[in-house]
């Protein structure tokens, strides 16, 4: 799916959605109102909710975003990055929000976290980190998610084999850890984390996919050229 594939109904819905959230209405309430009004499907609703933000909010995040080349150390939101990569590899919609961060409208957990496609996502991540020549890396996963401990253990072993300096571990609350990172850059596209993060934020999923595939993303900012 490309930008030009977006339906007229979706584009109108995006305009209504942004207009209302800019005026302080609840995002969830507006999503249902607009989604029902334009008969949007689940994917389209996810794109609105995860990708359309008020101009001021979008501009603030654009300024906070940094590149991988600028980072001195990384704290990585493991599932956030890997799930975006895996959804792209599965051919599910990924898109740029109005804040410029890459997000997906695909499956979150469940069967996505196993199989050859997810392993390929891990390989893409590790190859990107290995190319950073000794940059300190900390990858964190949600401890409550089943098999997170095994995943972290496997990734630690792979990091050691590839000479990646750092760790992969599980924590009770990745959100808390990422929001309180004091050095380096955080890697996530979670808007709640970005807004509360005291350091710069690297859109690692986008950088990995850009280098590996040079994809053309749906860019929701193009829906608001005069904004």
Textual characterization of the structure:
With 227 residues, the protein is of the alpha/beta class. The protein has two domains: 1-52; 55-93 and 102-216, Rossmann fold (3-Layer(aba) Sandwich). It has ten helices and nine strands. The protein has helices at residues 8-22, 27-37, 42-51, 55-64, 78-89, 116-130, 148-162, 174-179, 191-196, 204-213; strands at 65-66, 74-77, 94-96, 102-104, 137-142, 166-171, 185-187, 200-202, 218-219. The chain has a six-stranded parallel beta sheet with strand order 1-8-7-2-5-6. A three-stranded mixed beta sheet has the order 4-3-9, sandwiched between helices. Strand 3 (94-96) and strand 4 form a beta hairpin. Helix 5 runs parallel beside helix 10 (204-213). The protein is globular, with a radius of gyration of 18 Å. The two termini are 24 Å apart. The model has no long low-confidence stretch (mean pLDDT 93).
Give short descriptive properties of this protein.
227 residues; alpha/beta; Rossmann fold; 2 domains; six-stranded parallel sheet; three-stranded mixed sheet; 10 helices; 9 strands; 14% strand
């Amino acid at each position: 799916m490309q930008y030009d594939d977006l339906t007229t109904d979706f584009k109108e819905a995006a305009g209504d959605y942004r207009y209302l959230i800019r005026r302080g209405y609840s995002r969830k309430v507006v999503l249902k109102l607009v989604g029902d009004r334009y008969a949007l499907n689940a994917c389209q609703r996810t794109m609105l909710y995860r990708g359309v933000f008020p101009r001021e909010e979008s501009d603030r995040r654009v300024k906070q975003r940094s590149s991988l080349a600028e980072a001195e150390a990384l704290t990585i939101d493991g599932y956030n990055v890997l799930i975006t990569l895996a959804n792209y590899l599965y051919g599910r919609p990924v898109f740029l929000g109005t804040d410029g961060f890459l997000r997906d409208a695909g499956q979150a957990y469940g069967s996505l976290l196993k199989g050859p496609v997810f392993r390929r996502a891990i390989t893409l991540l590790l190859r990107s980190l290995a190319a950073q020549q000794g940059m300190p890396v900390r990858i964190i996963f949600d401890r409550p998610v089943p098999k997170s401990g095994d995943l972290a253990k496997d990734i630690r072993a792979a990091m050691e084999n590839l000479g990646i300096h750092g760790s992969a571990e599980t924590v009770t609350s990745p959100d808390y850890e990422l929001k309180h990172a004091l050095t380096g850059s955080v890697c996530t596209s979670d808007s709640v984390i970005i807004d509360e993060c005291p350091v710069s934020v690297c859109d690692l999923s986008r950088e990995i996919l850009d280098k590996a595939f040079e994809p053309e993303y749906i860019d929701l900012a193009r829906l608001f050229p005069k904004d």
